[in-house]
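Table S2 (text version). Query chain:
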Amino acid sequence: MKKIILSLFLTFASFAIFSQVVPKKPESSEFSWRILQDAQFAYDNGDFAKAMNLANRAKANRVAESEYEVYILDTALSPLAVRRAGEDFDAVLEILKERDQNEAITIIRHYLELYGAKNFQYSVHKMEDWVKAKRVYPEADFLIGKIYRLEGEYKTAIDFYEKARLESDFLDIPEQLYDILYEMADLMKHKAESEKYKQALLLILDKDPNYKDAVLRRAMLKIIDANKASNVDRFFDLFRVSSPKTLNALYNISVIFEEENEAENSLFASALGTIESFSHILGSISGRDANYEFTTLALFLKKIGEYEDICQWCEQNHFWDNLIAYCKKVSARGDIIYANAMLEIIAENSCDSYTRAAAKASIIR
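Corresponding structure-token output:
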């Protein structure tokens, strides 16, 4: 009798332990992204207390979602037949399909669509490890940081921004990292902490491979230092690099370098910003006019004037300001022939009247 009782006790104990291990499947209405969406809505409407509560709730639900996904993947990938398929996503997905492991398939495909196989080194088990670490919610931390900033608690805001930055590998939209970095930079500027502001801008530019390209830098400076009027068109004809997310950082770091008497660093940042803006605009024009090809800067600037929205983009993203600043830096370097030639082109062909006047006033006679 005692043996029977002991056996039943162990059975129920084992069941209780197992039931604790199996996480609850999240309800669709309680998905963390839905709750964060509500938090953002509350934030946009000025209800910061509600936004804070919802953002923290989203973080808690993200942990629960991660635990459930880990359980599903571990259960699906543990059997020997699956392990024999190796690391390759296609091979593993085929086996999982044969075994009707539909939830695991959905999870794997979801993250492949969001991040690509390369992000997981083409390994399904590396993805599983990544999911195990995905208990954080950087988007929620970012929103919480913005709330603290509005309340004047700048140190706490920075702590949350930094947490979101460090955990940016888990952003649902990877490019939102730029929003986080720009917010950090803007807060440092607001606090008049110039060195931290500079470092925040450099963090943004660290994501731009063009900024770190020493070969590109030397090539640009070589074209400029030849000091020929003909090199104006050649400059724009030779280089095509586009990274629109870093344009504002390039413009602002160029200003800082100039203030710190780092003339060449300032010039390169301005030159790169000019070419990245140019490449972005060229792509936009080519998308509307399939027959368009760049020939000269003069005709390119006239072409910009045909599109009101592109003119607005130029103003909002410092294209005109940077063009004038670039020419002034080139002139200060001693390459006056090149600088004057570009300024004359801008003065005659820019669709922005202020820029035309600024260019004309900047020509060295």
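Notes on Table S2: Residues 16-20 have pLDDT under 50 and may be disordered. The longest helix spans residues 48-77.
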